[in-house]
């Protein structure tokens, strides 16, 4: 889904690769895609990947939440992110016996939260998140798009 653009600056042509759906969370991390798409097939798991890259040298902590935790498994769903590290977060949807009737009106969402660890390295994950003030936590919401077997995804 990346796109290549050509731009002429001062008589020189440049080729630029654009990450479609790239999101920057206040300069801490970049993520792609901007929305999570699951291609559904009856009787099979549907999977998607959220790519997260640290833009800072400090160690970060992250966690992923969903509005429908019984429907999805997120691995890893929380943990540290070293400075400059790239991490793939795999999201797997439960096996569906039949496709939902409201396929194109899915209200499921995910929330990625990121914070600098800064001196709290020895705390457990639960203790860490309970000690971080809300203004230190950067959050990004992701909508879920469900695409049925044979459907074409609509561009928005």
Automatic annotation (TrEMBL):
The chain crosses the membrane at residues 12-29. The keyword Transmembrane helix applies. It holds the Pfam family Motile_Sperm. Its main location: membrane. The keyword Disulfide bond does not apply. One of its GO terms (biological process) is endoplasmic reticulum-plasma membrane tethering. Belongs to the VAMP-associated protein (VAP) (TC 9.B.17) family. This is MSP domain-containing protein.
